Amino acid sequence: MVAGAEALLLWLGPRADARRLRLFAVACCRRIGALLGCDERWPDCVEAAEAFADGSIGKEELWDRSETGRLKGYVEHGLAWQPEAGTAVQHAGTWSDAQGRPTGSFDTPVLFPTAQALRAAAGAAAALAYHQTDPEYSAVEMCYGGREPSPAYPAAVRDERRAQADLVRELFGNPFRAVACDPAWLSAGGAPALELAWSAYHERRFDLLPVLADALEDAGCIQEALLTHCRSGGAHVRGCWALDALLRAQSPARPEPGAIRQCPPQE
Question: How far is CA 132 from CA 125, 136, 175, 210, in A?
Fold first, then answer.
């Protein structure tokens, strides 16, 4: 039996840092991006959560952008079309205290516990499953009675949770087999590998990863796990463990890959 995202995140425990937990929640929300179009502020909530995870914005902007979008979405739309989609966004951009309770107070630590990531994942899985199996199923029917969800709904949830488990592996890799990256791989031959890694991460050009693997190999990289992951046909997202490892090697003094966003590719 393949472990789901919930089991994998709980198993990771303290190895699952707040940044990648939030990026996992963001990735779950991006999988339902088409369902968030009923309100233009919801995608901005997701963007804000991702930017905060990578250090591009501070806690005040995270709170302003995510709370404004959520509250206006509730007031103006009542989440009338897809409540689970709104729930996923809410938990991706939430502000939590040490016990995982959502809070707007800036006097508490900035934490994003596993529970919030799991809630975002559950909301996203339910939203996508509702849409795939019964697009006309509305929040009004769910809250006030009416027909039951399609019988295919549980299977659709399971399928999405399997995809979410793949996202966990994409973000965290194998915690027992850390991959050491040599900065020389990124600077060799005019630094094509650095330019490719930078573009893949900051411009979401994940289609460049197979080309990046070739450039790394040409530069002397023999880390099979790294090369295989870059050449894999699976989905890649912001926080990909391979790109994280490479960009940290390029800028070891700045631990978060998003923190080097001002470093342009070398000419």
Answer: 11, 10, 34, 31
